[in-house]
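forwarding from the other thread:

> can someone predict this with adenosine-5'-diphosphate?

sure thing
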Amino acid sequence: MTALAHIYSGKVRDVYDAGGGLLLMVASDRISVFDRVFDQPVPDKGRVLTAMTAFWTDELADLARTHFVTADPADLPPEASELPGLPPEELAGRAMLVRRAEMLPIECIVRGYLSGSAWKEYRTSGTMHGTRLPAGLRESERLPEPVFTPSTKATEGHDVNISYEEAADLIGSEAAGRARELSLAAYGRGAARALERGIVIADTKFELGHIDGELAICDEILTPDSSRFWPASEWRPGVAPPSFDKQPVRDWAEGTGWDKDSAPPPLPPEVVAATRERFVAVYEKITGRDFASWYGVGR
Ligand SMILES: Nc1ncnc2c1ncn2[C@@H]1O[C@H](COP(=O)(O)OP(=O)(O)O)[C@@H](O)[C@H]1O
Ligand SMILES: [Mg+2]
């Protein structure tokens, strides 16, 4: 049995060539904020990301093609159980087999609410990704309609927010148009579904790619790592709602006085535990599924 060739390790995922146009993507428990990875993993975080991506692939099936093939450990190539440092019980639930795509060199962000870097930009210049917005909007305010707000995909350093026109210059106007349409459709469906379950998806980031010439949603889909999730009951304009995503880790890290550039401070066990709980809670809330029944959990 020949080992699966390692292709790439990002901040969160380890990617292997599974042959036949397929990749094995393994979501680790690594957690990053401000593009820096902490030394302390958040147990089961990778499983939540993979489980959510599988869920959304089903939910979006009629309107978006995704790269997802399977996360069932029984359907993974046998070589997957031989990966260094990844015993089968660790692999289960984190690994998914996906179709390899020609990735677009942009991040397809959709914003339904004014938050994060978009709020910061609006506060200083009245614009969002360079486009003027109505005056007088407050933090966390719902935008008149969701907006496709792309960014560059930095191989090093931070992504930079760009306008739609800049994205069209980068990838061509036809691809940009299709990316915008697909991203808005997927966000619209996802946000509506989550809201039925009491969760606001304030914004999210999709990574799209071409598979056999067709645009597909790749990478992770509407997860707490790629999205801002708020409890709907606590949302109101003018305040930043407590979120189910990494915001508490960001807040904690900022509170330590860390410069966001040097090695991050060690995450205290209570922040790790609270973060795990939030990831699991939002998965169960949005999907209505029991996390304990996902592959590899609690064994
Ligand atoms: N279907 C796919 N085909 C090829 N590359 C993909 C696919 N889905 C996701 N990717 C890429 O795999 C990587 C996932 O690893 P991740 O840890 O999330 O990286 P990053 O730190 O760059 O976010 C990303 O670079 C993403 O663009
Ligand atoms: Mg990523």
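The mean pLDDT is 94. thats all i got for now
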